Amino acid sequence: MTQSNGTQTMGILERRRIEAEILKPVYEEMVARLGEATAQEILGAAITKAALAAAQSFAATEPEGTSLKSFADLQPLWTKDDALRLEVKRQDETHFDYNVTRCRYAEMYREMGLGSIGHLLSCNRDAAFCTGYDPRITMERTQTIMQGADHCDFRYRFEPKNE
C-alpha cells in the first residue's frame, strides 16, 4: 500500500498530527462564530466523509478485491511509530477482534489541546473507514481510550456475499 508520492510511507499518526495542526485554528474559528456544538457537528461530518473517501481509495488498490484479511493487512499503517499497542483476541476470515491498550493518537490530541475533539478527529473515522473499504465489514466498539476507558475494544465482522 505504498504510493510513489510518499503519502502512504508516512505513518497515520504523523498524518493526523499534521492534519490536527491545520484543523485546530479552523475549528477554533468555527467555535467562535458558530458555537461549539455546530463546530463539532461540521467537523465530525467532514472527517467522516474524508474517512469514507480514503477507505474507497484503499479498496480500489486491492487487485484481488477486499476482504477482512486485506482490511487487517492495512493495520500497520495505523500502528506505525508505536501509535497503537494491540492485543489481538481473534483473527480469522470473519472476525478481527483486538483491544488497543495504548493510543498515542489520544495522547497527541490531548498534548495539542484537542482532547475534547480527539474522538472526532480520530475515533469517528473507524466505522466509516470499514464501511467505505468494504460494506460487508462491520465494526463494534463500546469504549475508547480517547473518551477515558483503559482500552478500546474493536470487533470487526465480515459477512461474505451469499453466492
Automatic annotation (TrEMBL):
The protein's name in its UniProt record: L-2-amino-thiazoline-4-carboxylic acid hydrolase
Annotated organism of origin: Azospirillum oryzae
Keyword Hydrolase belongs to the record: yes
Superkingdom of origin organism: Bacteria
Keyword list, A-Z: Hydrolase
InterPro entries membership: ATC_hydrolase-like
Any matching Pfam family: ATC_hydrolase
Gene Ontology MF, one: hydrolase activity
